[in-house]
Design a protein that fits this description.
Elements (H helix, E strand, L loop, with lengths): L6 E4 L3 E7 L2 E6 L5 H14 L9 E7 L2 E7 L6 H7 L4 H16 L9 H11 L5 H13 L5 E3 L8 E4 L2 E4 L6 E3 L1 H13 L9 H25 L4 H5 L2 H9 L4 H15 L3
Antiparallel strand pairs: 1-2, 2-3, 3-5, 4-5, 6-9, 7-8
Length: 268
Amino acid sequence: MPLEKKIIGRGRTADIIDLGENRVLKLFHAGLAGKSAQHEYQIGKLIQETDLPVFKMYEILEVDGSPGIVAEKITGPTLLSAMMKNPFILLRASGVLAALHLRIHNVQLTGLPNQKEYLSRQIERATGLSSQQKQVISVYLERLPSENALCHGDFHPDNIILSSRGPIIIDWPNAASGNPAADVARSCLMLQSGALPPDMAVYKQYIIRSVRKWFQRNYLRSYLRRGTLTAGQVEAWLLPVAAARLAEGIPEESEFLMRTVEQQLRRI
């Protein structure tokens, strides 16, 4: 398929290309397996059959040997960029994040990957953990309660677009059927992690870390107030979720994740 590329976004795995007529192409980078695109497309088609606020996926195709997905174009800032532009909305934004997350967890779908099986595979692939640590964490994971709620798997403010028709939830490739507490635990970890520039002034680093922690606590408090989970149920999933996150090989997060794993191992 010949294509005059108008790239409007770049990510770690794909470029977003404007096709016109309210459509975009998510073109995966060369070398990525077509099955990744197929998986994301199939998940997306399942999700769009629910009443959740998501974009539509139209077709999967190949461009110059690279797989791509044609989808509905959604315009608007992400919740993250809106927060950075106007910090005064942080409290309200944490509530929006919590309400959307709970809405996801109230859905059940067949045909999704199993959350525990996915976490188990990721724990085995995790870097920085000894074989003994992996075994202990895997045994612990098996003891945690299984559920079959829809879980996003990568839910954070940068995956919510504030469109003209309201917030739209994007980026569903990690969606699974499982325990909402695990999904909330992962979001809590992501909201706190991320390295800051080494040359940043110490006081600025302190402020940013404090704001991150404050936002995460308000998101969690808002979620717990709306739903039926307890803080203890969420905390119980921090160990396997942090260990599994290590497999993603994000250097900026590795120190924080290892510290979390070690702290949680001492508690079991």
